[in-house]
Each structure stands twice: as structure tokens, then as C-alpha cells.
What we know:
Elements: H1 2-10, H2 14-29, H3 37-59, H4 67-75, H5 80-90, H6 95-104, H7 110-117, H8 121-129, H9 137-150, H10 158-168, H11 175-185, H12 193-199, H13 205-218, H14 222-235, H15 250-257, H16 267-271, H17 284-293, H18 301-307, H19 310-317, H20 327-336
Helix pairs in contact: 1-3, 2-3, 4-5, 5-7, 7-9, 9-11, 10-11, 11-13, 12-13, 13-15, 15-17, 17-20, 18-20, 19-20
Amino acid sequence: ERIWEKLQKRYPTQHALRNAPSRMYRWIHSHADPKNRNEQEQEVLRAQQYAARMVLDAAGHHVLAVPTCLRRMLANSHYRRVGEELLYKLGPCALEEFGNDLMADPDSAPHVLAALIRKSPAYIREIAARLKEPVSKERRWHALRVLIQLGPDVDPAAPDCIPDLISLLEIPECHIYAIQALGNITQGQERLVDRFLELSYSSDAWTKKAALEALGTIAMSPEHVVPRLIAAFDDYTEYDPDDTYYSQHVVVVLALERFGARAAAAVPALMARIVQEDCDYLDKGVINCLIAIGPVSLPALPLLEKFADEEEVAALEMGGEEDGYCPAAIGVYRLRQY
């Protein structure tokens, strides 16, 4: 009855409620090639998944009253992701019913398991214990990925797992996950800065990326780390084209942002990269980094004003939402506030 009430609120008329899944099905189905049977079957499945997601979203924590239903979904490869999305939203309140199931499943999504055990020191310590021998390579990888998702919430188990994570830095098949986990766990701690600085010069692009990200996450020792990040503008190239939509230097600018005003030395290097190489596009990540650094970025204001539309800046000054405006206009508006 509660689920039905929630669905009725979302789809106020009986007609809308009855036809919501079928409308989605028809829309998806109309885009499929009628001659391709496999594509047709895939689109039907997508429509069914949408309907299942709609019902589960409306049901919320009431689904825990009928756990068998959710377990069936988690056991079905077609619906597993839909069920995991709900568990992720439910978080710790689903721990009692599904915690042991996910802990025993080596294929459970790390972010889902982390969401459930985030407030349970006993489960976190059990995950941390999997870093030790003897465990399979897959179980260790899974444990590392859960610890990465937990981040600072690992604190109850940190004294036990940090030495194990440091030892995994020497194991090629684990060291990238270990860098990411240590970066998250040791936020605000200088103990690993030197080791990450060393790894940031690795010839392996994945290792270098993980080390640079970890240096930004820890955000300590700016006198040593900021110069290394500035140098990374030249010796690190982002290899994932999906990440370059935000910035050609996404790893470096996000790391510098974490230092705020302590990254003042990076302002000249950032100003030189406001316009992306080989094109006329403005680099949104670079501009956002200048904003995050604060008043010491004011020397960049005249340069941004050359690219900004003053009408857009005026609209922002009148209280307009920043979404949809040119990055240069946003940069001018924000820097003028300093």
C-alpha cells in the first residue's frame, strides 16, 4: 500500500501510472532496428529495467520487508545493477539484511558494499584483513576497491591496514589500487608524501596518474608537492579522452584545487593554459582552479576579460545561475568578487 501511494504521487492519474512503463518501452522500442532481433530484445530489456527501477525507487526502504524479491534481482544478471542501485541508496540501513551476502560475494560492486558498511567498524576491519595473505588476487583487488570507496571512513581499521597497503605498493598487480586507497585514507597526513612524489615520476602512465591524484587528495607539503604538480603540466598527458572534456590537464588542476591559496605558485602556469592547445576552446578546469586558488589569481582577470561576454558577467552579477554560461564569464564574475 505504501509503494502504491508513492507511485500515485509520482504519477497522479491512473492513466499516467498505468502507462508510464509502457510509454518508456514504446519510446525506446521505436529507436530499435526492427530487422535486428538482438537489438529488439535488448531494448525490451531496457524498458523492463526502467519499470523495475521506477518501482524500487518508489518503494525505498520498504523493500527490506521483502528481501527475497531483492535477492532474486541481485541473482539475475539482467537486474543485478538495478538492485545494487537501490542498496547503494539505502546504505547502512540495508546492512543487517544484505551485509553478509555482499561480503561473501567476490563480484559485489565495491561502491555498494562500501555504502552499506561505512558505519560498521567490524565489517571494515574484515575487509582490511583481506589485504593479508593468503587470499586470492581477486579478493585482494575487491578489498582494495572497497577501501578506496570508503576513503576516510576506514579510520577504525586504518592502524591495521595502512602498513599492509604500504607493502602492496611494491606489488605491480596491486600498487595502483594501493596508491588510491592510501591517498583517500591518509588525507591531511604527510607520512606518504615522499613516496607518492617518487611514484609520480613513474614511466607507467597509470601509476603516475594515481600518484598525482593521491598527492592532491592528501594536500600536504605544498612546498614540495605544488612544484611537482606544476611540472606535471609538461610531463603528464591525460590518456583518457573522456576526462579531457573538463580539462586537458584534469588530474593536475583537480590536485592543485585541493591546495587552494597554497598553490599560488601555479598561477602563471595556469594562465598560460587558459586556452586549450591545438584549439580555441577555453579550459574550464584551469579556470575553476584559478578561482579555487583565490585572490592570488587576480593577475588572470585581465586575460579572462578578453574572452568573457560582459552581458553574461552582468547576468551573473544579477544573481543568474552559473550553469550554461561561458567559463570565462564565470571566472571574471568570481575573481571580481575577490
